[in-house]
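Standup notes, structure subgroup. Blocker cleared on the NAI input:
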Amino acid sequence: MAENTAYDLVVIGGGPGGYVCAIRAAQLGMKVACVEKRGALGGTCLNVGCIPSKVLLQSSHHYHVAKEELAEHGVKVSGVELDLATMMGRKDKVVSDFTKGVEFLFKKNKVTYVKGAAELIGPNSLKVDGKDEITAKYIVIATGSVSAPLPGVEVDEKTVVSSTGALALEKVPASMVVIGAGVIGLELGSVWARLGTKVTVVEFLDKVLPPFDDEVSKNAQRIFEKQGIAFKLGHKVTAVKPGKSGATVNIEPVKGGDALGLEAEVVLVAIGRRPYSEGLGLEAAGVRIDPKGFIPVDAHCRTNVASVYAIGDVIGGLMLAHKAEEEGVAVAEIIAGQAGHVNYAVIPSVVYTHPEIASVGKTEQQLKADGVAYTVGKFPFLANSRAKTSGDSQGFVKILADKRTDKVLGAHLIGAGAGELVAEIALAMEFSSSAEDIARTCHAHPSLAEAVKEAAMDVAKRAIHI
Ligand code: FAD
Ligand code: NAI
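Run returned:
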């Protein structure tokens, strides 16, 4: 427990929103504590989210490449075997290195790490584990989110799992039904499909990755189907019945039609996440929540109580680690009297499947709905020399620019390295660049980034290599 319990700022939750906010506030000279109840810093992201999922995506990709793709490069390997325990052990080690890394950063920045569950008892005070009282001029709530439950379906993390269980299976299941063709469904579905599981994804809507650009979603679905993942789009789950060795997932078409029973050794429920604010004592502090459990905030992430701010998944919007981090930095700066700000129009989203899928700004369907006149520039990786030399040339880069001003309004990518390439376009958008600005920037050859340049050139219909 902290030796002096009066702080300038107490942050509740040590995830990417909370820990980044705490460190930035300490950098700005505040006396800061961060309360975390999980027993490790880093929140969902480091412990059971971004990091372990990316470790398993990389490891399973290596396995798949060794088994299926190296031969065409003239590299002969025989007897490729999966050692799942080692793969999982490496994942756990990466996670613990990172969570300890955040503890180190707290020490370096003199942030007090308070282990326990925080409960507000007033607008400037809280209790930890029901006893130790802490006061602070400001409190930032960064308690994150948890998996949304499917009504009537019990998650036991063995047969019926959430993302947390799907990151820790002890053996490769023969079959898996994934409920939800969102980011978690496709990332973790890919991991297990690569390791040998027969994966079927059931999605309520009629496309995979619903918020993404339609063209990207269609292309992604075709590629995933080639990888052996089956889709039941436009279907709803009516029941999940656990049996002796697995479960039956009953589904029926949303628009009506014959019901179907899918047998699976493991069922992954990945239908979104909900804000987490249980046991937080919001009523005691007078902090309002909305009917869905999100904490409403103003443009400065301030709640209805002047001394209490909220950031990250618990306030809604894109539930992404980097969005939470941006809010953490902005709030620390606002509390310090600076002009902290988050540009919500330029937050990239990346799906770390193979190929990667990335997006920033407006989709074509959003621009159409908003009545904005736009031009499309597109370039396929098939015509990109680096992608061809690597033997990894699926997908394309698509840039949307304002028809009148040429300002970049959005970009949608599917292809190897898309998650890195989107950063260039996000930076361009932050600088209000035109497509021509990107097109006239020299890009190294041969590089995947040349596909971004050529897509920008294609906005003016002057791409060279297609
Ligand atoms: P969290 O990370 O959820 O942290 C909140 C913390 O608050 C938790 O550690 C919790 O224990 C603590 N807490 C809650 N209540 C209390 C209390 N009363 N007292 C003390 N502590 C409390 N996002 C990406 O951007 N990229 C990705 O690749 C990505 N992959 C993901 C993969 C999976 C499988 C999942 C589930 C999520 C993924 N996300 C990804 C989303 C990302 O993890 C979240 O958006 C991010 O963690 C939100 O950060 P946060 O700080 O708001 O909350
Ligand atoms: P999601 O919102 O991405 O996808 C959920 C999907 O489930 C949607 O397509 C939805 O239409 C569908 N669905 C909802 N109810 C359903 C039902 N009853 N039956 C069938 N389908 C149903 O949510 P997901 O995948 O659970 O991820 C949660 C959050 O975590 C996301 O908001 C995402 O931002 C974040 N995340 C981010 C990652 C990344 O940035 N790479 C990786 C993993 C998660």
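Discussed briefly. DSSP finds 14 helices and 22 strands in the chain.
Next: hand off to the docking folks.
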